[in-house]
Amino acid sequence: MRLHPHPRGVTLLLVCIASSLWAVPTRAEPILRVRAAARMQLHVSLAGDHPRVEGSLSDDLGAAIAEGEIRVRIDASDGTGSDTRIVRTDAAGSFEIELPPGTQRCAVHASYDGDEFHERSEAVADIDLALADVTLRILLQDGPTLHLEAEPANVEVRADSAVGAEGLHVELGDELGRVLARGATDSHGVFRTLLTPTRAGAAGAGKLTAASAVDARRAAAHVELSILRKLDTHLDLFARWAPGSTDVVLVHGSLLGPQGANDTLAHKAVGVFVDGAHAATLLTDAQGRLAGRLSLGEALERSGHGLAISARFEPDAPWLGASASRPLHLEWPGDTDTNPSWLALPVVLSIAIALWLARRSRPASVDAPPQRASLPGVQAGPPQKRGSPRLSVVMGQVRDATSGLPLTAAEVTLIAANSGLFRVEIDGDGVFRSTPLPPGEYALEISAAGYAGERTSLSIPHTGEASSLRVALVSLRVLALDALDPIVARVLPTRGAARVATARETLGHARRRHLETPALEQLALRIEHTAFAQDTPTPDDIVAISAQAASVTAALDSTPEPAVPPTTPRWER
Hints:
By secondary structure, the chain is an alpha+beta fold. The chain is 19% helix and 37% strand.
């Protein structure tokens, strides 16, 4: 028997098969959208007889959201009705709505539905024109980032009002409605509190909220700040040559959180680098420990003398901080057999003695101190080509002015008059890069333990000069030795004396020329202790040494060199 399927059934079967084939890739490829938080603020402005509500819309980093559609609903307090309007933000993220004539009290509800880049946001304001408007701002010492470290974080709530902002009762909270702190604003309209890690909450994205209560003269106010609670990490690395090997290095270390040994980071990937090139990736164990073997044959061929080994941890979560170990310098052990180059040692010593005798026979002169590897201070980079877009990110590198090596432990801070402090992260190469910054004038401060800090000013946005800043910091130990240079030039006027004669050698030459004084002896001993002692010197130490050196130099300039009686040559005695 032959079956003849109905044409209608065949068509239905084909439609089902096509629909199933179309649905498979749709389910297999989900679309993931990551959107930034949006922040909205409202306040009342009185312009003659026409009060209006002014608002602003920005992202979680403070950048304006332009052309955002805002739905504003104004509800009369007496229940007589409501008025809904649609407005758009301008290029600065601002918008305004005039209140209906004769309005005295109302509630304003503004909402922003978000877009493909920003989340939804809303703000509510209870308006009473008989009360003065209050504006609140939340400021953190590290911008929108809250570091979950052992030390409490400084939090400021700043209030502004036309009738003064002193004595406002402020309540600080989080996105879960927990009250973190309470207090009153001071004579400058500022409420300050310390936020400990236990009260700040768990690592991740969140919000801080601040609210001030209504009183007899001022209306209530509310503000929110999107924050990132960040967990800092610490990476240690140790290395040694494998026993009996000249090309294998054994490395081990640990990756910890801010609480140390009780705060391990397990199963995290850590990169190990040799002379800046990636050599291996190691995974931490359950206790946050890492260990491995590095075969360095090619690296030894390129170096030939020694190696710089370091490790870096780059997290996959934004609330986990990156970290880098201190660079380790390993000298190449070389072969165990006698090296023929030792046979050339007598020749090298003979040449060195001959050069030393030749230098002693040259006429006396004074050279300028040797050039440093980098010019101290902050050097701006080249501007962009004309017509290029203006930039809001600050980038650069911090180096030691004497050696030219990167300073990985430097601290970079941007201070804005209206936006507070922004702490900028620095990587293992001394390179720093800020997040996009709000427009305005900023002070850039760079500091490092044991170094003289630098400070400069810059404007945001910029034309590229702040995209490749070159920062060179001078060690305080080097500055202590610098104070000796003018004295060396007067006591030992020999070519190249600066940076060669030590404090003790300078003091010895002063004695032979009968120029020694108690002040010079005290200065020499103080410089030697400051430059070479185990304790890191402070800027106050350098100020005191510089003042003491200037006094000794002035005394040497005003004192004629005493005549030394001629001695009878030994062969004439």
